[in-house]
From TrEMBL:
One of its GO terms (cellular component) is mitochondrial inner membrane. It is found in: Mitochondrion membrane. It comes from Erythrocercus mccallii. This is MCUR1 regulator. PANTHER family: MITOCHONDRIAL CALCIUM UNIPORTER REGULATOR 1, PROTEIN FMP32, MITOCHONDRIAL. Belongs to the CCDC90 family. The keyword Transmembrane helix applies.
């Protein structure tokens, strides 16, 4: 392994600062062991370029497989959506036709009801006109009968009056003859 610092320079530095040669070598040896252990730990987590490229190729192949699966799924989903859309269009057309038929039926029923009501009103007006005409005829007949009866009573009264006048004249002439 390569060390990234000068161990002999570190030993000399430690000796200059009051450590003995043996103490300095032990400290540097401990530092080297610690560094080697740390590097081993770091290297365990690291991969080599070859391993990295293999892993990258594996990931890329998985991505390619997933892409193929997605395309297949997308096509099948698109087909399913298209068929579902067609079904919905057909159902909407059927519902539209049913609604149109119902509207036509309701319109026809309303026109029929309206025509029936018009004919009933016309018939009612005709009945009222007939009843009014009959009432007018009855009134005219009654008035004519009353006029006839009045004329008849007038004639009877004139007859009685004439008869009474002639009777009175006859009686007066009779008395006049008797007195003369």
């Amino acid at each position: 392994r390569r060390l990234y610092f000068d161990t002999h320079a570190l030993v000399c530095l430690l000796e200059e600062n009051g450590f003995t040669t043996q103490q300095s070598e032990v400290i540097v040896s401990a530092l080297v062991k610690i560094m080697n252990t740390n590097l081993d730990m770091i290297y365990k987590d690291m991969v080599t370029k070859v391993q990295q490229e293999i892993a990258l190729q594996q990931v890329m192949s998985h991505i390619g497989g997933v892409k193929k699966d997605m395309i297949i799924l997308e096509k099948s989903e698109f087909s399913a959506l298209r068929s579902e859309n067609e079904k919905i269009k057909l159902e909407l057309q059927q519902i539209k036709k049913q609604v149109t038929d119902e509207i036509t039926k309701v319109r026809a029923d309303n026109k029929l009801n309206l025509n029936l009501e018009k004919s009933r009103v016309k018939e009612l007006h005709a009945q009222q006109d007939r009843a009014l005409t009959q009432t007018d005829r009855k009134i005219d007949t009654e008035v004519a009968d009353l006029k006839t009866m009045l004329e008849s009573h007038k004639l009877d009264n004139i007859k009685y009056l004439a008869g009474s006048v002639f009777t009175c004249l006859t009686v007066a002439l009779g008395f006049y003859r008797l007195w003369i």
